[in-house]
Amino acid sequence: MSLCDLHMHSTVSDGTLGVAELVAAVHAAGVSAFALTDHDSLEGLPQARRSADELGMRTLSGVEISTRARDVEHHILGYGFDPQHAGLCEMLETLQLRRRERLPAIVERLDELGVALDPDSVRRIAGDSNPGRPHVARALVEAGHCRDIDDAFERYLGDGRPAHIRKPVPSAAAAIAMLHEAGGVAVWAHPCVKPITRPGGLAQVVSELVRAGLDGLEVIHPSHGASEQRRLRRLAREHGLLTTGGSDFHGSRGSGQRLGRGREGEGIPLELFEALDA
Predict the structure, then answer these.
(1) Calpha distance 113→121 (Å, rounded)
(2) DSSP assignment of 211-278, as one string?
(3) What pLDDT, on a 0 to 100 scale, did the predictor assign at position 132?
(4) Which of 82, 102, 196, 247 has a CA 20 to 30 Å removed from the CA of 39?
């Protein structure tokens, strides 16, 4: 089976591989088509395109946008858009600025908790990318405050934890509309990664996002077992949505992530890429 991967991250956001190194790993994994979907950034797309061309691979423009709907954060994957679109670029630049502004607040909150952390260590780990919670987590591990990244999120940085600082993000509807304006499609990333406790659950959220213009659901993902995939495929059929799949690969920090593969090692079929590229 020919494979694709529609969800992965480089050092432009919170991955551990540079763009060229990541694309080489994608190729080595036997994946023939992919989309780089760094968080709130298009910076890596030109290199991804060059590397794909050199290796004879197919690629689409991609991004993962942080959004909020009804006070719950949703990540929206965008595909096939114009990466030079002024409105989309402005939205993402604003999000990147807010990420940078959040770092001092997280460090200050950690200090209040008795966890001393040098913000320069976070910036060093982030390098040229925008500093985010995964970079803070790695700095906490380096400083000996946490066993590993999962421990850092569980104790301090995860949603609802004592050092979590919410960043201002656009509504899901605004991000979807902007992706459409830029000529792309919008897909809800990993819908089952967290339990949905509000009335109506997953089906209600999907209905609301469809009314906002959602085009698809990410079905194959490391957080989705067979039952979650069946449920998502049923919802996609009911609403006439595209289905996609991705490894959500982050490199060495991601546990159980295999390029071109889902949770049980199932391959992500090339047909999912072709449906987006039609």
Answers:
(1) 18
(2) HTT--EEEEE-TT--HHHHHHHHHHHHHHT-EEEE---B-STT-SS--TTB-TTS-B-BHHHHHHH--
(3) 82
(4) 196
